[in-house]
UniProtKB/TrEMBL annotation, chain A:
<feature type="binding site">
    <location>
        <position position="217"/>
    </location>
    <ligand>
        <name>Zn(2+) 1</name>
    </ligand>
</feature>
<keyword id="KW-0031">Aminopeptidase</keyword>
<feature type="binding site">
    <location>
        <position position="303"/>
    </location>
    <ligand>
        <name>Zn(2+) 2</name>
    </ligand>
</feature>
<feature type="active site" description="Proton acceptor">
    <location>
        <position position="194"/>
    </location>
</feature>
<protein>
    <submittedName>
        <fullName>Endoglucanase</fullName>
    </submittedName>
</protein>
<dbReference type="Pfam" id="PF05343">
    <property type="entry name" value="Peptidase_M42"/>
</dbReference>
<dbReference type="InterPro" id="IPR008007">
    <property type="entry name" value="Peptidase_M42"/>
</dbReference>
From TrEMBL, chain B:
<keyword id="KW-0378">Hydrolase</keyword>
<dbReference type="GO" id="GO:0046872">
    <property type="term" value="F:metal ion binding"/>
</dbReference>
<feature type="binding site">
    <location>
        <position position="169"/>
    </location>
    <ligand>
        <name>Zn(2+) 1</name>
    </ligand>
</feature>
<feature type="binding site">
    <location>
        <position position="169"/>
    </location>
    <ligand>
        <name>Zn(2+) 2</name>
    </ligand>
</feature>
<feature type="binding site">
    <location>
        <position position="220"/>
    </location>
    <ligand>
        <name>Zn(2+) 1</name>
    </ligand>
</feature>
<feature type="active site" description="Proton acceptor">
    <location>
        <position position="197"/>
    </location>
</feature>
<dbReference type="GO" id="GO:0004177">
    <property type="term" value="F:aminopeptidase activity"/>
</dbReference>
Automatic annotation (TrEMBL), chain C:
<dbReference type="GO" id="GO:0006508">
    <property type="term" value="P:proteolysis"/>
</dbReference>
<dbReference type="Pfam" id="PF05343">
    <property type="entry name" value="Peptidase_M42"/>
</dbReference>
<dbReference type="InterPro" id="IPR008007">
    <property type="entry name" value="Peptidase_M42"/>
</dbReference>
<feature type="binding site">
    <location>
        <position position="180"/>
    </location>
    <ligand>
        <name>Zn(2+) 1</name>
    </ligand>
</feature>
<comment type="similarity">
    <text>Belongs to the peptidase M42 family.</text>
</comment>
<feature type="active site" description="Proton acceptor">
    <location>
        <position position="212"/>
    </location>
</feature>
<dbReference type="GO" id="GO:0004177">
    <property type="term" value="F:aminopeptidase activity"/>
</dbReference>
Amino acid sequence: MDMDLRILEQLTQIFGPSGSEEQVADFISAQIRPYCDEVINDTLGNLIAVRHGTGKKIMVAAHMDEIGLMITHIDKEGFLRFTPLGGVRTSNLVGQRVKFNRGRMGTIGVEKIAKPSDFKLDKLFIDIGAVSQNEAEQIVHLGETAVFVGDFVEVGSRIMAKALDDRIGCFVVIEALKRSKSTNELVFAFTAQEELGTRGAKTAAYVLEPDLAIAVDVTATGDTPKAHPMSVKLGSGVGIKVLDRSLITPPQIKRWMAAVAAEGNIPFQWEVLEYGGTDSGAIHLSRGGVPSGVISIPTRYVHSPAEMVDSRDVQAAVDLLVSLLEHPLE
Amino acid sequence: MLLKTLSELNGTSGAESLVRTFLQQTIEPFVDIINTDKIGNLIGIKNDSLSGPKVMLAAHMDEVALMIIDITGDGFLKFRPVGGIDARILVSKPVQINNSQVGVIGAKAIHLQKQAERQKALSFDQLYIDIGAKSKEDALSKVKLGDYAYFITKFEPFGDGLYKGKALDHRVGCALLAELLKNDYDFPIVAAFTVQEEVGQRGAKVAAHHLAPNFAIVLEATVANDISEGSDEGWITELGNGPACSLMDSSTLYNAKLIHWVRDVARQNDIPLQFPRGIGSGNDAGSIHISKVGIPTISLSVPCRYIHSFASVISEKDYRACYDLANALLKELPNIFEGSSINFAKEDQF
Amino acid sequence: MNPQMKDARDFLSLISIASGVSGYEFSIASLVRERFEEFSNEVERDKFGNVYALRRGNKNSNKKIMLAAHMDEIGLIVKKIDSRGFIKFTSIGGTDQRTLLSQEVLVHGNQAIPGIIASLSPHQFDKMESSQAVKMDEMVIDVGMPLAKIQEVIQVGDIITIKRQTYPLLNNLIAGKSLDDRAGVVAMKVCLEELSRLKHSHDVVAVATTQEEVGARGAITGAYTLNPDLAVTIDVTHACTPDLKGQVTIDLGKGPTVALGPNIHPAIYRHLVESAHFHRLPIQIEPIPGHSGTDAWPIQVAQAGIPTGLISIPLRYMHTSVETLDIQDVLNSGKLLAYFIASLPDDLEGMLCY
């Protein structure tokens, strides 16, 4: 079945840094409502969709939030100082355009730097074209957040955009949800505040008490020039997580996911990630523990304005999720 | 198996007696005269009464080890290396002292280190052996100053047709030599299992002097660094590609005519042969080839990964091929001798 | 060596050699189960891999005492297999890269495959004064097989452990890998054994936890599942060595440490110390100003909060493969736990509040 990449395009372009996921939730809610029995917005900002069934209760999670910058100070000349919201890399920032919720754009500049080691976040500022503090304050306010500007572009089989982390996960879940014929009790959590420490997933899992959970998120690759050694390659299939800093996938979950992938001729690759974590990190420690796995979409340049995925891997992720929901672990 | 026993025996420079005793028993039936010279080399002589060139086969018995140089007040042992040991391989290992007492070389727990400490190698000054002693007196009941500590490693088949063990880089030559002595050759053979190679090829110097051979073959193992994925420049030799015939090392420039002869004999007998890329460290040939008026010498080596470490690795195929090549060379040897000096009849072919 | 000590040493040796890296505790768990069954009424394993051994109290008490010691160990994992068949790896849990060179390992693929850790820039043994540690990224594992053969038996994600037996040293010391915290597991077994000779009112559940080395994850879910009235964790603590003088004050062989500080309920601390004094067991006091770095940390805040204590077995060279401890300290830990439990008041008066 063909994926509707226009949905992905729209998903990536919605404004939704951690804590401000409402617009993403509204968009997803509209997409999935016809396919679900219940759709709920919870107190932390998670969007939870339920499809009743008879078998195991399976939780699927993908986070809606993206990394961003929060304004902490507006100076006399109208320049904005900021703090990162989530894992922002300083080296990705200079010269980038950013966008506020109400549409105002800005660019990131840097003070005169004496030596490279002085290149720190507090030397950077956002210029929104305001000529005074007063003017700037009319446009943005302290505590307001901005996100990267990063168009959705297809280049061959690859896709570039901002916020593919983790709108690509949301997209995979939406596609799978539409296609799924699973008769199990399915709960889909589009989570908030993952980038700040998987906070949405923690409360969602506590409420939902699933038997089994799968998070869908991005992972890094080792296939760019002189990259950190890692076996994951773009275009070589969906990733099945072995471990990251937040989770060691239980061996029986690994075996189940790999067996279902092999059964459906879905290309997959094992993913050993030496840093980072996903919603499954929080979910698997909920209450007395929830056996959890992760479907990973190999992604280059994670947390940049031009994250890159391969559409074949995305297709494989959708196929794998659909199959897993139909063949849950006994 | 000869190599297994030799690998697992302990014997460093100046303390080779266990290895010597074992080799003495092993070669006794195959030689006419056997003795130990004044520095500790084990000498076996075969066909002494025959005429023809006197050929020396040499292999060294000593391995690298640690010498106990001090015992602290609370019973920990300080040490220094005998031979070349990279201190970085010692951390987090058990060692054996005096063939009975086990001790461990630990390290400060990672929890108690600063980030920068983990980037710095631990030096011999910082390392010590823990045998569980409560005090200096307690330690002295088991260990004396000047005792040696050895790697603990079982000799075992490894991977696909390989062997793993300690001291393979040292004892492979001994095993080859002992096996060659079982054959019959029709010229005098003097076998020298030498001491103190690791501290400057000192045993071989003495042996070459008093044995005064016309020709010498040094048998040993050499570095195989064939583990990097990219370029093969620094590999020296490659496991599985046959024995290596040295061109030059830090103590010897080998005779080009002899090297060509080795190459031809290998070809004629269908034995794989490789020449080391890059210059290795020296071996007993360094002492032998400049003994007295000079002795024509070649050096045949079995490629060996991770030399001077807890677990070195060789290929069984290479070991066999090295034996075959040495044997073939010995059989051919009388043909290149005229009286007691080498004469390459078809010199123009080189 | 008395029979109890020999028994403890043999059990410690058995589980030290076994492999059970965080998240992959299946085989170590079966060994632990088997040995706990003798002194327990029920033994269970939960979906997180934790093993619970229940020993019922003599009274019809509804109080539940949790003991926790983790059975997982730090280890390595295959992250890439290069084009020539050498294996790149990373660590699970806190591993000092300087402890890895020239180690023999087992790669747990389709079967346990022996390997050797090598440096990609081979050491120049004649230039031995290199002051830089070799980085883990510059090391590979050699299993001595061609790539095609490796791909049949080893995959990315396979677990790797150091191949290490245990070695007896002088004075009842023993050295080996993963004594952190298999020694704690042995102490729990000694405790259950001692309890079989004592009267104890309360139910005791000895929990061999999983995934401690990656953030005490088994203890998080285990304490939630069990929701005990009181918990004592048994782990290891740093013992002094020549390079730690002035930094560490705990000695090997002078008894387990009893911890105090924010992680510890003061009444449990007091009762542990009193039990030790009454039974003339040697102990050392270990003040811990914050995070204890053990299962005790999450257990204390599980559910509605659990009064928690911690005793630790002194250990040298933690997280190397030659961890060293005194078996007598292990025995004394188990005995102290048993005496502590046997002397708890029926209603746990004073233990449940401040």
